[in-house]
């Protein structure tokens, strides 16, 4: 029973470890695999909550652990990635600007955690998972994006995370959720970019692709099973 309750937390900790490894790889100049690790972290983040509900193993510790993992993988890691590919040329100012993203992300997570009246129909502000994924996308495309546009996108995502804008949650709509959409978009772009440039694919992509295909297969099977139960009833 205790092991069953620990399974969702293992996925969350794996998400956190992906963020840590992404930071290390970025520091060593391997921004390609650093991006892939954030992608894998997004997959794991979209799985831990569903697994907890499936196993009936939801806990307060799991919720807090999820926020701690998110601030590393989708706050710190993307910010450092963008710093290395774009903001490093600005020296200390670039460091300070890059540091704003995890700060805004931490505030957004804290506000979400203490808001007992969170609606199932919308998010208040852009979720840090989606914001971190989009920032990673900007970092991947940095060679084709002017520096000023990278800076504007960076600050816009910071603002949108802590804004009061109502973002539809799509929880009751049979469509892919934001994490799935951004993950799939990132994966497709990474493949297209490296294929067109005839570069060797980042080695972490060979972990990400089977993981994501397995996850999508599981979700389709779960939806089909639920549809069959509803039809019988």
Automatic annotation (TrEMBL):
GO terms for cellular component: endomembrane system; membrane. GO terms for biological process: phospholipid biosynthetic process. It is an enzyme of class 2 (transferase). It is a multi-pass membrane protein. It is found in: Endomembrane system. Keywords: Lipid biosynthesis, Lipid metabolism, Membrane, Phospholipid biosynthesis, Phospholipid metabolism, Transferase, Transmembrane, Transmembrane helix. GO terms for molecular function: CDP-diacylglycerol-serine O-phosphatidyltransferase activity. The chain crosses the membrane at residues 90-109, 121-142, 148-166, 178-197, 203-220. Its main location: membrane. InterPro entries: CDP-alcohol_PTase-I, CDP-diaglyc--ser_O-PTrfase, CDP-OH_P_trans, CDP-OH_PTrfase_TM_dom, CDP_ALCOHOL_P_TRANSF_CS. Signal peptide: none annotated. It catalyses: a CDP-1,2-diacyl-sn-glycerol + L-serine = a 1,2-diacyl-sn-glycero-3-phospho-L-serine + CMP + H(+). Gene3D superfamilies: 1.20.120.1760. The keyword Mitochondrion does not apply. PROSITE patterns: CDP_ALCOHOL_P_TRANSF. Its EC number is 2.7.8.8. Belongs to the CDP-alcohol phosphatidyltransferase class-I family. This is CDP-diacylglycerol--serine O-phosphatidyltransferase. It comes from Bacillus canaveralius. The lineage of its organism: Bacteria, Bacillati, Bacillota, Bacilli, Bacillales. The gene is pssA.
